[in-house]
Amino acid sequence: MKMAKKLLAVVLTGVMAVSMLTGCAGISSRRVADELQGMLKAVNDKATVKAVDDDLANKAVKVAKQDNKDALKEDAALKTAVKTELIKGNKLGDSYIWIAYFATKDVNKTVKAQKIAKELIGTNGIDTSKAINSNDVKVGDKSGNQIENGNKFELSMKPFTVGGTDYVMFVVTCKAQVKTAG
Predict the structure, then answer these.
(1) What's residue 162's pLDDT?
(2) What are the structural domains, with CATH classification, of the chain?
(3) pTM of the entire structure?
């Protein structure tokens, strides 16, 4: 009986450890998120970046490779197709969505974060007009210049290969909020 309790304790510990990892972002994603957070704090001191599972990035990769397994879609067509896929059912209708993808040869976490930051940051801080769905985001009955990005960004990341070249797809989301007076 004593041995059974010990075995049960070991099995339970293993199950708990595995359940904690399920649905979590990978170490690489968390490292890139940390680097990106530091860069975003330069323009928004309240910005946080959390690495999330690769679900959104998986959807974006699927769209990127949909028509041709050996070449990526042209950039504008890809962004339009990804936007359509990611806002199906209006799940992200209140969130800005930015995407970035690039070849990963000789690219470390800092360079990845810099390339993502370039997609988010404009001359006056976070640039929501660079979001692939900037014209479609709504908070209640507010839209356009009445809303702005919040401070909590989520990063979804997925490596993929097209035509023998390794890439990584990044999808960054941030819930919109009504602009504060001032």
Answers:
(1) 85
(2) 24-178 (3.40.33)
(3) 0.80
